[in-house]
Amino acid sequence: MIGSFSDEYIVLVDNTYVSSFAFNLSKVELGSQLYPDEDDYADLMVGNLKKFVAEQRYLATRDGQSMQWVLEYLMKYNGRNRALDTRIRQRSDGLALLHLLSSCATFCLLLHEVGHVTYGVADYKDRQRDLIDRHIEAVVGRRHSHRRLEEEVFCDIFAMVNAITVLNRDDGWDANGLGNVCLHALLGALMCIKTRDVVQAALRDSAPVGITPSQDVLVARYEVAVSAIDEALRTEQERFKSQRRKVPFAGDKLNLRARWLEALEMPVRDAETRNLATIFASAFADPELGGFDHIMHSLNQISPLSDLSDVTDGVDIQRGR
After folding, report:
1. Which of these, 59, 235, 277, 306, has the minimum number of CB atoms within 10 Å of its CB?
2. 70-124, pLDDT tens digit by residue?
3. Is the pLDDT assigned to residue 315 strictly greater than 60?
4. Which phi and psi (to 5°) does residue 193 adopt?
5. Higher pLDDT, 91 or 232
6. Going by C-beta distance under 8 Å and a sequence separation of 6 or more, which residues neighbour residue 33?
7. pLDDT at residue number 74
């Protein structure tokens, strides 16, 4: 987020909520490439995305249903996320790789905002204008005005090239690998922003959470950035040092956008987790139930022969709205 307070000063605010979300998605992608047989990483990616959808819905409504969904994803996926973090940390370069993913997410978000300021500087903008125009036309054609898309793509490329320059120069990571990580961080951040918009639109229209073609502008932006970044990096090769540390990140193997569209289908398809989350959410949402006493009473009704749905059937978790 960027705020200009005068002609001389600009304040940049690091949105750690968005950058940490992008970091976690990149960490799952990294885990799928380092330890492909240790987990169902596509499902873990969907789980992280579903948690964010649920959080956005809860922040907008504060209702019991949204609380239940947030709890579902914490119960089902939090342990697996921690296990992945432990596996990566056990590598000799594990901490360095995690720091790299975090740095790419943070730099790309902050430098994108700096790009909006730089976009007003004609000579710098003109250096990339032809490249950006060609790739926008190749991806989206001439169907509508591209002025806004042009500026956003410029800022994406500005952010990635400069983030790669810093991390290549200071930490010695190879530029091509850094490009893969930065593109993934960019897409993760776009998913974050668009998820908020999609959830708010669904609540406003009393419709299921989903994507319509007119809403899916981020796809064009990402595809243009993917198309243009390789050429942009080639034109900036003199800025990069020789490759000293290989980045073991080969791109978007899990197809993040496909996982995101899957994540918009709520809720988790796991009856036991869902019913446990219902018990907890109902205790939080309705003070009349007695809080923790309600949780203990509900769990004590569960026997080896019963199903959790026997306990949660008929529970109203909307009273906390």
Report:
1. 306
2. 888 888 888 999 999 999 999 999 999 999 999 999 998 888 888 888 877 766 6
3. no
4. -65, -45
5. 91
6. 248, 249, 250, 253
7. 82
Contact 112, 162 (CB under 8 A): no
User: What is the number of residues in the chain?
Assistant: 321
Closest CA to 88 of 50, 35, 39: 35
CA-based end-to-end distance of the chain: 30
Q: Name the β-bridge partners of 3.
A: 11
Neighbours of 40 (CB within 10 A): 11
Q: SS3 for 70?
A: helix
What's phi and psi for 146, nearest 5 deg? -110, 15
Q: Quick one: which of 247, 183, 181, 248 has its CA closest to 36?
A: 248
> Would you state the structure tokens that stand for residue 66, as one six-digit string?
């949204």
Please check whether residue 319 is in contact with residue 64, taking contact to mean a CB–CB distance below 8 angstroms.
Answer: yes
Give CA 199 to chain center in angstroms. 15
Q: Is the overall model pTM greater than 0.70, yes or no? A: yes
Tokens of 239: 């800025």
How many Å is the Cα radius of gyration of the chain? 22
- The total of other beta-carbon atoms located within 10 Å of residue 47's CB is 23
The strand ranges marked E within 124-280 are none
DSSP string, 177-208: HHHHHHHHHHHHHHHHHHHHHHHHHHHHHT--
Model confidence band, residue 132 (pLDDT cutoffs 50, 70, 90): confident
Band (pLDDT 50/70/90 cuts) for residue 157 is: confident
Q: What does 30-93 look like in DSSP terms, one character per residue?
A: HHHHH-TTSS-HHHHHHHHHHHHHHHHHHHHH--HHHHHHHHHHHHHHHHHHHHHHHHHHTSTT
Which two tokens mark 125? 């903008």
Separation CA 292–CA 276 (nearest Å): 13
Contacting residues for 265 by C-beta, under 8 A, at least 6 apart: none
Cα(213)–Cα(194) distance, rounded to whole angstroms? 13
pLDDT tens-place string over residues 182-211: 989 988 888 887 777 777 777 776 666 555
